[in-house]
Automatic annotation (TrEMBL):
InterPro entries: Peptidase_S1 (IPR050430), Peptidase_S1_PA (IPR009003), Peptidase_S1_PA_chymotrypsin (IPR043504), Peptidase_S1A (IPR001314), Trypsin_dom (IPR001254). It comes from Actinoplanes siamensis. This is Serine protease. Residues 1-25 form the signal peptide. GO terms for molecular function: serine-type endopeptidase activity. Pfam families: Trypsin (PF00089). Belongs to the peptidase S1 family. One of its GO terms (biological process) is proteolysis.
Length: 226
């Protein structure tokens, strides 16, 4: 069963995160990457908070915009940018407005942030290619909290014509040395130094599905100008 990768809120069991079509943003925060390794520097990383609680991962793609997953958007949103620790460092901003398409969301920040922004790809990664994924999600299938430190893992692309939680085009992959799980929602999949996907759903054991950046590229440009 595929579920959205939003982190579980206190008191909400993981089991309530149903199949993508039924899951709601209120189901909670996406989990850590299972396996993989920790990251020492990620100036483009954005930890995403809903009503003050960590809920998802994301990337800053320009001075004014953070890219994350649509199902992460709920309540009053804010971000911490530029720190591999989701609880400290970097800079924080509130979110002034959001735009969504498929399972992607663009959050406009209340004021600009100067950092190294995540480049966006205009093409799909090759099937069979090895990509990197990043996030603060859970580090085990159940009984774990979200990771305090940003993690990364490598995955192998199996299809570029899968679907995300809202029926948009997605990139499917299987884990090489790790997998996405709750709390990784909205985090990036990267190929050749550019973001190709946004974490949407996963089965928690081997497969993950990332909303396609290339498929939504024109929309991203129309909103964020990049």
């Amino acid at each position: 069963m595929r579920i959205r990768l939003v982190a579980a809120l206190a008191g909400v069991a993981a089991a309530v995160l149903a199949a993508p079509a039924a899951a709601q943003a209120s189901d909670g925060v996406t989990p850590y990457i299972i396996g993989g390794s920790t990251v020492s520097s990620a100036p483009w990383a954005a930890a995403v908070f809903s009503n003050g609680s960590f809920t998802c991962s994301g990337t800053i793609i320009s001075a004014n915009y953070v890219l994350t997953a649509r199902h992460c958007i709920s309540g009053t949103m804010s971000v911490r940018v530029g720190s591999v620790n989701r609880t400290s460092g970097g800079v924080t901003r509130t979110v002034s407005s959001t735009s969504t398409r498929s399972d992607l969301a663009l959050m406009r920040l209340s004021s600009p942030v100067t950092t190294s922004y995540m480049p966006l790809s205009s093409s799909y990664p090759p099937v069979g290619s090895t990509n990197s994924i990043y996030g603060w999600g859970m580090t085990c299938y159940s009984g774990c909290d979200a990771s305090a430190t940003l993690k990364t893992a490598t995955v192998s692309v199996t299809s570029t014509n899968a679907t995300d939680a809202y029926g948009g085009r997605a990139i499917a992959s299987t884990g090489v040395n790790g997998n996405a799980w709750r709390g990784d929602s909205g985090g990036p999949q990267v190929y050749n130094g550019a973001q190709v996907g946004v974490a949407s759903t996963a089965d928690g054991t081997s497969r993950q599905y990332y909303g396609s950046v290339a498929y939504n590229r024109a929309w991203i440009t129309s909103v964020a100008g990049v």
